[in-house]
Design goal:
The protein is of the alpha+beta class and 82 residues long. The protein is built from 2 helices and 5 strands. 28% of the residues are buried.
Amino acid sequence: MKTTTLSIIGMTCNNCVKHVSEALKAVPGVRSADVDLATGLAVVEGEAAEKALIEAVEEEGYEASSTGDGEASASQSLGGSR
């Protein structure tokens, strides 16, 4: 099983963490997702594609980018936050 670490921008509270966590867990292939407000990082375990993880976070209105762990680095942003 692979681990993918994403940097999440735009989270300001525990409700934000909940939204990001639920979005990541809904991606097919995700076994677990741990989102940390203080560090702004999400650690995801499973076989989901990094691009799908980033898209799921961005659909919730947050910015997400790879920290370089897991698949090749990719960065996308929608701008804005909840």
